[in-house]
Amino acid sequence: MRKVLGWGLILALVLFGNGVVMAGSVLSEADALYDAGGLENYLAAIPLYEKAVAELGDQFDVLWKCARAHRDYGNKIKQQGEGDWEDLCAKHGKAGMQFAERAIALEPEKVEGYYYYGLSVGIYSDGVSILTALSEGLKNKTQESFEAAYKIDKAYNKGGPILSLGRFWTVLPWPMSDEDKALDYFREYQSGGFLDGSDEGKIYMAELLMDIGGKDNEAEARSMLKTAEQSSERYFADWAKRLLDDLD
User: Fold this and answer.
1) What is the pLDDT of residues 126-137, one digit of tens each?
2) Up-side HSE of residue 69: CA atoms within 13 Å toward CB?
3) Contact 152, 111 (CB under 8 A)
């Protein structure tokens, strides 16, 4: 009897171990696709991350990476701006929110779940409109998530939580928007050395400076946009050019 139980236990361990290895290889494949970057790779990574979630159960690193893949695919779709991009942004933004919420529930002391929840709401809002997102009560949840990410590790992803809060307070409709708060965050992002390497950050900050107005603000915005106009990413280069045209 002892021998039977012993071999049964060994067999169970082997099968379980193989399952973990198989799931781990799926996760590694998903990571490789994501790291390669680009629309097609992000899309291909999503079902692999979801498969890893299904096989491994709720694990923090798998969940937030799945949220990130959904959000970044939606972001690329938005930048491409073709076909049913709004529907896809809504779909993948919502999925990103759901996976990020599960990550937050598992590890509420870590930055990734909060950060990618907030970014996923942004993509969802691009798809359904910011007014619809606000009507669904997402303003406070987004603010709280970005503020939690900021508190835990504001330098995460090259100052991502700082930049996100600056943009958050910029794009909210009046009277919820707050230019002073937004500019404070952008100045912090700038003083932290993150702005120099971010065309996206330059555009966001320049757009706010233009909205605030004034000769000095517009001159600073122009300088940022001149740099962003040379971006290797067409989406940001074109955006910078449009804003420069508005200044002329």
Assistant:
1) 999 999 999 999
2) 26
3) yes
What would the two tokens of residue 25 be?
């290889």
Ramachandran class of 233: left when φ > 0, alpha when ψ lies in -120 to 50, beta otherwise: beta
d(CA 74, CA 76): 5
Kindly list the domain boundaries of the chain, sorted by start residue: 21-53+60-146, 154-248
pLDDT band at 7 (very low <50, low <70, confident <90, very high): very low
Give me the helices (H) in 129-178, please.
130-135, 138-153, 156-171
Q: Is 176 helix (H, G, I), strand (E, B) or coil?
A: coil
Counting beta carbons within 10 angstroms of the beta carbon of residue 152, is it exposed (0 to 12), middle (13 to 18) or buried (19 or more)?
A: middle
CA dist 121 and 149 (Å) reads 14
pTM of the model: 0.90
Contacts of 184 (CB under 8 A, 6+ apart): none
Fold classification of 21-53+60-146 (topology level): 1.25.40
